[in-house]
Specification:
Length: 63
């Protein structure tokens, strides 16, 4: 019996599209620090300590 399977963190990833350059990237829903666009450097998700504040178009949520 494995206990680890019961302790899976309930976190998810979100696929977003930068509203400035249309780059798509997968980001953590609750980032520890601000997440920037890999292409243009625009902030996509702001860290809030909990669920991040999204400044990008959300395309898909993986849970
Ligand atoms: Zn961008």
């Amino acid at each position: 019996m494995s206990r680890e399977t019961l302790l899976k963190p309930r976190s998810s990833f979100v696929k977003v599209r930068c509203t400035q350059c249309s780059n798509e990237q997968i980001v953590f829903e609750k980032p520890a620090s601000n997440v920037k666009c890999r292409v243009c450097g625009r902030i996509l998700v702001k860290s809030t300590g909990g669920k991040g504040k999204f400044f990008a178009e959300i395309l898909e949520v993986y849970s």
